[in-house]
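REQUEST FORM: STRUCTURE PREDICTION
Request ID: SP-0412
Submitted by: Lab K.M.
Chain count: 1
Length (residues): 145
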Amino acid sequence: MLKTEAKIRVRFSETDAMGVVYHANYLPWFEVARTQLLAELGMPYRELQDNGFLLPVLEVSVKYRVPAHFGDDIVVRAMMKEMPRVKIKIEYEVLRGDEVLTTGMTLHAFMNRDSQAIRPPKFFTETIEKAFRDNAANGTVAANV
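STATUS: Completed
RESULT:
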């Protein structure tokens, strides 16, 4: 498993009149953690885009358990639990301390700039395979990339 943790402080603009985070604001937080994961793997999303590779979201799910509030310090954990093939599944946990507030998932596929589905580039698959091998060799169940 490959994972990262992005730290976020909930801003006032992300909440509703009750001071609770508006449900749609979790998706940008997922993106923050997802792009951080790719960057830590050595594949910043900007570079993928500059080279003509796009990773649109094909599917998203979110399960809300406990609300986050204005001023909370939260951690958004992004996890790639399985070696991706054509599609890339990333799972998320939003935590306040040890408390899981929200869980979610996004599913992505590579596309070119003409919106055509394409295979992941060789450098991407080689980098991901190496990261999974390295984690397995370290004997860790989960390790930050």
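NOTES: DSSP finds three helices and six strands in the chain.
Reviewed by: T.R.
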